């Protein structure tokens, strides 16, 4: 069973629909016992870093997520769900993130002709072979909606990169933790293949 964590941060139904299309049985929940007994756990999300961290703490989910990771359960963060895994974000100064992975969330710098938020399709570069992107072609396009981006501290955890005025670490993979800045559930057949890879992790 795939648990999709509900912390009032949106985008739950499209994630659920994508997994159901793949033949999985996702459960949208914030119940600790359901999350901890799941075979896979997904943290989606759109919105503000500070507000989201506040809700995770309010619902007691920050510690549950840490326990999921410690148990080596496959865990996938999507969009804001990626950003929350790191220590801090320029969007919400002074608000600590989950701190599960080392790195910072920075605002996409202003540049001539560059619209922020970044909304649209960008191609991915893969610096190494990873389980999440197995079978995905170099240069595959995926869908982004964001104003802030990840700068990971450790290059060997970066699973995919893209360019939007600056190099963006578009996805990470470290042991049982996976995360995408883009929205695989809105990225057509490429996104479905990525979610399938996650669902089939052994």
Alpha-beta classification: alpha/beta
Q: What proportion strand?
A: 25-35%
- How far apart are the termini? 14 Å
Mean pLDDT: 96
Oligomer: single chain
List the secondary-structure elements in sequence, H or E. EHEHEHHEHEEEEEEEEH
Going across the biggest sheet, name each strand in turn. Answer: 2-1-3-4-12-11-10
Notable features of this structure?
alpha/beta; 3-stranded mixed sheet; 202 residues; 6 helices; 7-stranded mixed sheet; Rossmann fold
Write the layout of secondary structure elements.
Layout: E1 2-5, H1 12-21, E2 26-29, H2 32-37, E3 40-43, H3 49-58, H4 61-70, E4 75-78, H5 80-83, E5 88-89, E6 103-107, E7 118-123, E8 141-146, E9 148-152, E10 158-163, E11 167-174, E12 177-180, H6 188-199
Parallel strand pairs: 1-2, 1-3, 3-4, 4-12, 5-6
Antiparallel strand pairs: 6-9, 7-8, 10-11, 11-12
Written description of the protein model:
This protein has 202 residues and is an alpha/beta fold. It has a single domain, classed as Class I glutamine amidotransferase (GATase) domain (Rossmann fold, 3-Layer(aba) Sandwich), CATH 3.40.50.880. It is 26% helix and 29% strand. The protein has six helices and twelve strands. It has a seven-stranded mixed beta sheet with strand order 2-1-3-4-12-11-10. Strands 5-6-9 form a three-stranded mixed beta sheet, with no helix packed on it. A two-stranded antiparallel ribbon has the order 7-8. Strand 10 (158-163) and strand 11 form a beta hairpin. It is globular and about 50 Å long. 43% of the residues are buried. The model has no long low-confidence stretch (mean pLDDT 96).
